Recover the amino acids of this structure.
C-alpha cells in the first residue's frame, strides 16, 4: 500500500519512505516521516497532484512522489 | 563565548551596526513582519549569484544602528534548495549578531523543526511567535513561559499584520545580541551513539584543522559531516575526511537501520513534536476552518478549473484594464506636452534641429516607452503579491499542475504564461513565484510565444488589409499558433536543454489569509521602482541607438539611405524565402525590437514618408498643458475604475484602429500578398522578444544567458515557421 493509492478521506501510517537523496530529505523536512499519520484530503481536478494532511497542515505532492511513501493502513 | 569576536574582529571607527537576520518558514508571515519593521527603508536586491530575492534594511533605533537582513523563507537548512543554501551560508559565514526566528503559531510543530536547527548554529535566537491572533481564534493556547524555558530563548508573541509585539521583539533581539553569553539554548540530544560519533569526529577534524574551531560551531559542523553534507566538506576545506565520516556513518546505519540524515531529521522532529505537545493545548472539538470551506469549492473536482480560469480572467482583466488608461495617459503626456516643452527648452538654448530630434524622438520617446510599462508592472505586481499572500497561488498551482507538468512545467507556471498575453514583461517578472530555477527559466523562455498586446497593432494592420472578412479567425489562429508552439517548444526543451528529472512538486497549501495593505504596497512599489531604473537604462540606450540608425549619416533625406535603411537592405535577402524580402519590411522588424508595435510606426515612416503630424491650432500654453495633464489623469483614473466594472470583455484586446494607418494599409496591400502577410505576422509573433522583455530577463535572472537562449531559439523558430507558411502556401497555391 502506498500513499498514491489512498482515496480522499482515507488515512494511514507511514511505514517506509522509498525516496532517496534530496526528495527524501525534502519530504522529511516537511514532516513526512516514518510513523507519521497522513490523510489524503483531495485529488486535483485533473487527477494529479494530491493534497494530504500531515502534522496538522496541508501539503500537496504529485502521485509519483506519493508512490514512494509506503503505508500501513488500519484494517 | 569568545567565538563571535574571533570570527569578526571589529576595528571599526564607529560601532558596527547590530546585525539581525530574520529566518522562518514560508507562509509564517515573515515577509509581513519585515515590512512592518523596516517599511520603506527596505532595500531589495538579489543574493549574489542566484535569483533569490534579498531584502535588507538599516535604520537607527534608540541610538543604535540596526542592519536587518531577511533570509529566504525555508523549512529547513538542508543543502538542496537555493533558498536553503543562501540562508545557511549567510548564517554560517556572516554570523549575524542575532537571529529573529519567525514561528507561525498556528503551525507550531513544523515551524519548530527549523527553530531546532537554528539553535544549533550557536547564534543568539529570539522567537517571534507570529500570527498569534489567528492561533487564539482557533482556540489554541500556547504556554509561552514553558516554551521559553524548554528552548532557553526569548519568545515574543507578535501579530505582524497589525504591527503588534514588534517593539518588544526588537527589544528582545537587541538584548540577546548585546549579551551573547546569555544565549544558552537547551541542546537537542541526538542519542548516545550519534553524540559520541559527532564528538569523536570533531576531535579528529580539529586535530587536522585547528583553525576551524573559530569558523564553525563545533557540534554543527560534526553533525553536518555525519549527514553527508558535501557543501560543508568543500567549504571547510575538509577534503580527504570522507573515509573517516563514512566509517562513523556506517556504524550508525548498521545500528539503526537508517541513514544518518533520516536519523537526525527524526530526532529534530521528535524534539519539535515533544515541545509542541508540552506547550500547545488545542480545543477538543476542532472547528472547521474557513480555509477548509473555501477549498471545498476552490479545489472541487468539477468547479476547481472553471473557478481558477475565472480568477485568472479577472486578474488579467484587472491588471491590463486598470493600467491601460494610465499607460495611455503617460504616453499622451510624454508625446504631447512634455515633448513640446523640451522642444521649446532646447530651442531656447539654440540647440540645432538634430539635437531637438535626438532629445524628443530618441530620448523622450525612449523614456516614454519605458513609462508606459510602469502602470502595468505596478498592477501586475499588486495582483501577483495578492494571489501569493492570500494563499490562492498555491491552489492555482495545485489545480493546473497536471496540465503544465506534461510540458515540463510547474503548476505555478500557468499564471505567468497567461499574463504573457497582456504583456510579456510583467509575465517574465511574475516567474519569481517559481522557486525552482529550472522551472523558472523554462517558463520565462516560453512566455514570449504568448502573443502580447503590442503585437496586436501589427496584426490589425495586416488583417484589415488582407483578411477583412475573416479577421476574427485569422487573429485567433495567430494566438493559437503561439500556444501550440509553446507546447511543442516546452516538450523539446524538456528533452534537450532541461533534460533530467523534473523538479519535485512538494508544496504547502497554506491557510487563506488577507495580505496586509502595507506588504502589498511595498512589494508593488519595489518592483515598479526597480523596473523604472534598471530596465529603463537599457531601453533608453537602445531607443537612442535606433534614432541614430534612422538619422545617420548626417542630413540623410531618404530613410532608405539611413543606416537603418542600409541594415534593412543588407538583411532583406534573409527574408526573401519568407515572402517579404524588402528593405522596408526588414528595417521595420529591426526597429520592432524596441517594442513590437513599433513595427507599424516604422512602416508608417518608411512607406508613407513626409507625413508630419502638424499640430492642429495654436500651441497650448504651459498652464493649459498642465491643466490638461491633470484632467486627463483624473480621466484615466475614472476609466480604470469603470473598465473594471462596466465591460465584460477584455478592453486591451479590443482592436482600436488608428485613423492614421489608412494610407499605410493601402501601401501594404500592394507590397504584400495575403500569404506573405500571414508569414510576416507569424514572424512578428515569434521573433526575438522586445528589449523591454530582454531587460526583464536580465533583471529577473541576473544574467543575459536566458535572454540569449530565447533570442536564438525564437529567431530560428520565427524564420522556420514563416518559411513553412510561405513556401508551403506557395506550393499548395494558397493566397499567392
Amino acid at each position: 500500500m502506498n500513499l498514491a493509492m489512498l482515496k480522499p478521506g482515507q488515512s494511514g501510517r507511514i511505514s517506509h519512505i522509498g525516496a532517496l537523496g534530496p526528495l527524501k530529505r525534502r519530504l522529511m523536512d516537511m514532516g513526512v516521516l516514518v510513523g507519521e499519520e497522513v490523510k489524503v484530503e483531495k485529488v486535483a481536478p485533473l487527477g494529479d497532484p494530491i493534497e494530504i494532511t500531515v502534522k496538522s497542515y496541508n501539503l500537496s505532492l504529485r502521485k509519483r512522489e506519493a508512490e514512494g511513501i509506503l503505508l500501513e493502513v488500519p484494517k | 563565548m569568545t567565538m563571535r569576536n574571533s570570527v569578526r574582529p571589529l576595528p571599526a571607527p564607529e560601532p558596527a551596526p547590530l546585525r539581525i537576520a530574520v529566518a522562518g518558514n514560508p507562509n509564517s508571515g515573515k515577509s509581513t513582519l519585515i515590512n512592518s519593521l523596516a517599511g520603506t527603508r527596505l532595500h531589495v536586491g538579489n543574493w549574489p549569484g542566484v535569483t533569490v530575492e534579498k531584502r535588507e534594511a538599516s535604520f537607527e533605533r534608540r541610538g543604535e544602528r540596526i542592519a536587518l537582513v531577511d533570509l529566504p523563507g525555508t523549512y529547513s537548512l538542508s543543502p538542496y534548495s537555493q533558498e536553503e543554501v543562501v540562508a545557511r551560508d549567510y548564517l554560517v559565514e556572516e554570523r549575524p549578531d542575532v537571529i529573529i526566528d519567525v514561528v507561525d503559531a498556528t503551525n507550531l510543530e513544523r515551524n519548530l523543526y527549523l527553530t531546532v536547527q537554528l539553535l544549533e548554529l550557536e547564534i543568539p535566537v529570539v522567537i517571534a511567535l507570529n500570527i498569534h491572533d489567528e492561533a487564539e481564534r482557533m482556540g489554541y493556547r500556547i504556554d509561552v513561559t514553558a516554551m521559553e524555558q524548554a528552548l532557553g530563548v526569548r519568545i515574543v508573541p507578535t501579530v505582524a499584520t497589525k504591527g503588534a509585539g514588534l517593539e518588544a521583539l526588537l527589544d528582545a533581539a537587541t538584548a540577546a545580541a548585546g549579551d551573547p553569553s546569555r544565549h544558552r539554548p537547551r541542546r537537542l540530544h541526538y542519542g548516545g551513539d550519534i553524540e559520541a560519533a559527532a564528538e569523536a569526529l570533531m576531535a579528529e577534524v580539529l586535530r587536522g584543522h585547528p583553525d576551524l574551531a573559530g569558523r564553525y560551531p563545533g557540534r554543527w559542523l560534526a553533525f553536518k559531516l555525519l549527514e553527508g553534507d558535501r557543501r560543508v566538506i568543500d567549504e571547510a576545506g575538509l577534503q580527504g575526511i570522507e573515509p573517516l565520516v563514512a566509517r562513523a556513518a556506517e556504524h550508525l546505519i548498521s545500528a539503526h537501520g537508517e541513514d544518518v540524515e533520516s536519523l537526525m531529521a527524526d530526532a529534530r522532529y521528535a524534539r519539535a513534536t515533544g515541545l509542541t505537545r508540552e506547550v500547545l493545548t488545542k480545543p477538543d472539538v476542532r472547528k472547521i476552518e474557513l480555509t477548509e470551506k473555501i477549498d471545498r469549492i476552490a479545489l472541487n473536482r468539477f468547479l476547481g478549473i472553471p473557478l481558477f480560469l475565472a480568477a485568472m480572467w479577472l486578474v488579467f482583466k484587472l491588471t491590463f484594464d486598470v493600467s491601460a488608461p494610465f499607460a495611455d495617459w503617460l504616453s499622451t503626456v510624454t508625446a504631447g506636452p512634455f515633448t513640446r516643452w523640451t522642444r521649446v527648452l532646447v530651442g531656447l538654448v539654440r540647440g540645432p534641429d538634430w539635437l531637438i530630434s535626438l532629445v524628443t524622438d530618441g530620448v523622450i520617446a525612449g523614456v516614454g516607452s519605458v513609462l508606459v510599462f510602469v502602470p502595468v508592472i505596478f498592477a501586475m505586481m499588486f495582483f501577483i503579491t495578492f494571489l501569493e499572500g492570500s494563499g490562492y497561488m498555491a491552489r492555482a498551482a495545485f489545480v493546473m499542475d497536471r496540465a503544465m507538468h506534461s510540458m515540463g512545467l510547474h503548476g505555478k507556471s500557468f499564471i505567468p504564461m497567461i499574463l504573457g498575453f497582456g504583456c510579456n514583461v510583467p509575465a517574465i517578472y511574475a516567474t519569481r513565484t517559481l522557486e525552482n530555477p529550472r522551472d523558472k527559466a523554462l517558463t520565462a523562455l516560453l512566455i514570449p510565444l504568448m502573443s502580447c498586446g503590442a503585437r496586436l497593432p501589427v496584426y490589425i494592420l495586416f488583417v484589415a488589409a488582407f483578411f477583412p472578412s475573416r479577421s476574427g479567425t485569422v487573429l485567433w489562429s495567430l494566438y493559437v499558433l503561439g500556444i501550440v508552439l509553446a507546447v511543442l517548444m516546452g516538450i523539446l526543451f524538456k528533452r534537450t536543454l532541461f533534460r533530467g528529472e523534473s523538479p519535485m512538486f512538494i508544496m504547502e497549501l497554506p491557510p487563506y489569509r488577507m495580505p496586509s495593505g502595507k506588504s502589498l504596497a511595498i512589494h508593488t512599489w519595489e518592483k515598479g521602482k526597480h523596473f523604472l531604473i534598471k530596465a529603463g537604462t537599457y531601453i533608453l540606450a537602445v531607443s537612442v541607438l535606433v534614432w541614430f540608425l534612422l538619422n545617420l549619416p548626417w542630413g540623410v533625406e531618404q530613410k532608405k539611405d539611413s543606416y537603418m535603411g542600409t541594415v534593412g537592405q543588407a538583411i532583406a535577402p534573409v527574408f526573401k524565402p519568407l515572402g517579404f524580402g524588402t528593405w522596408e519590411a526588414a528595417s521595420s522588424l529591426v526597429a520592432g525590437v524596441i517594442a513590437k508595435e513599433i513595427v507599424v510606426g516604422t512602416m508608417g515612416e518608411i512607406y508613407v514618408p513626409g507625413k508630419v503630424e502638424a499640430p492642429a491650432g495654436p500651441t497650448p500654453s504651459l498652464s493649459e498643458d498642465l491643466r490638461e495633464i491633470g484632467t486627463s489623469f483624473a480621466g484615466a483614473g475614472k476609466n480604470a475604475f469603470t473598465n473594471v466594472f462596466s465591460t465584460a470583455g477584455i478592453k486591451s484586446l479590443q482592436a482600436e484602429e488608428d485613423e492614421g494607418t489608412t494610407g499605410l494599409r493601402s501601401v501594404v496591400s500592394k507590397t504584400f500578398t495575403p500569404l506573405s502577410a500571414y508569414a510576416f505576422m507569424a514572424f512578428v509573433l515569434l521573433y526575438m522578444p522586445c528589449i523591454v522583455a530582454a531587460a526583464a530577463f536580465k533583471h529577473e535572472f541576473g544574467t543575459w544567458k536566458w535572454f540569449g537562449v530565447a533570442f536564438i531559439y525564437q529567431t530560428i523558430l520565427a524564420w522556420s515557421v514563416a518559411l513553412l507558411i510561405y513556401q508551403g502556401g506557395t506550393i499548395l497555391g494558397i493566397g499567392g
